[in-house]
Amino acid sequence: MNKDQLAGRAIAVAAALFYGFNTTLSRLAYDTGTTPVSLTVYRFLMTSSALIIIVLLLRRSWKMRVSPLLFVVCVIGLYVTSIGHLGAVNYIPVSLSAIIFYTFPLQVIAWKRFANRQPVSHYELLGFILAFIGLVIALGPEFHQMDIRGLLLALSGSFGATLFILSYERFPKDTDSYVGSMWLNLATLVLCFISLQFGFELVPPKVQDGWLYLVAIMVFSVASFTLSLQAIKKIGGSIFALILNLEPVVILLLAWLVIGETLTVARIVGIAMVVLALVVSHWRNPQLAR
């Protein structure tokens, strides 16, 4: 494994960590009165503004050499991911939503194996399966609370994440992560505003803490999204998707530390299985030691 590959894995771990903080902050923001659609709009509005400032300060070129069709597909994937992942928790438990959503790493590897006919090692496949089983054990879903609307939203979010990763992986290798993040967030923001024309309302937080949560979400969104783009380019979509299984582990730990949820034996076992999955997937794997 060369230094670039090692750096890519470290970046992916950092992205998973920041995504975990973002999800926990989103839950806190909902408690202040805002809604999933509103949070998505505020998130992309604030993140886009921050990225424009960053690109201007760094004096980066705003140009991107990417197929318009590929860009549109990537934006649709990002939009569907955000709406599906955040909207599902309105109808089904967060744990159940997370398990359904985190089928996307298996979707990514399945697409690469059967559609693109890319070889997948036994270690990598075993790692994906172990990670998914670990999440099921750790999150402990309550299937009796299933609501078809939540199921469809979580599944759509999972499909959107798969679409986003597979499409961005085809962007030119020299795509600037800040510029790419800026344009993708701006385009997704347009789709969010279009959504508001179909009966959705923009509901701001009802207390000051809610706005503080939104600012924190913006900071972590900029960090997690730009790091994700860098990681995908360095290590590929399938390995990035596998490492991103650390996000729900971070969410569980933060729920224990910040929100006061109980860290049960089952959750500890599940977390251990996810970590084991990452180790197994990298063990003597020729695909990962490029």
Give a description of the structure:
With 290 residues, the chain is mostly helical. The chain has one domain. It is built from 12 helices and no strands. It has helices at residues 3-30, 36-58, 68-87, 94-101, 104-115, 122-139, 148-168, 177-195, 208-235, 237-243, 246-259, 265-281. Helix 2 (36-58) packs across helix 9 and helix 5 (104-115) crosses helix 7. It is globular and about 45 Å long. It starts with a helix and ends in a 9-residue tail after the last helix. The model is unreliable at 284-290 (pLDDT under 50).
Task: Kindly list the characteristics that best describe this protein.
290 residues; 12 helices
Task: List strands and helices in order, with pairings.
Elements: H1 3-30, H2 36-58, H3 68-87, H4 94-101, H5 104-115, H6 122-139, H7 148-168, H8 177-195, H9 208-235, H10 237-243, H11 246-259, H12 265-281
Helix pairs in contact: 1-9, 1-11, 2-8, 2-9, 3-7, 3-8, 4-6, 4-7, 5-7, 5-10, 6-12, 8-9, 9-10
Mean pLDDT across the residues is 80
Helix content: over 70%
Q: What's the total count of β strands?
A: 0
In N-to-C order, the SSE pattern is: HHHHHHHHHHHH
Task: Give the overall form.
Answer: globular
Radius of gyration (CA) equals 18 Å
Distance between the termini: 6 Å
Domain module tally: 1
Residue fraction in strands: under 5%
The main pleated sheet reads as: none
Number of helices: 12
Residue runs with pLDDT of under 50 for 5 or more positions? 284-290
Secondary-structure-based class equals mainly alpha
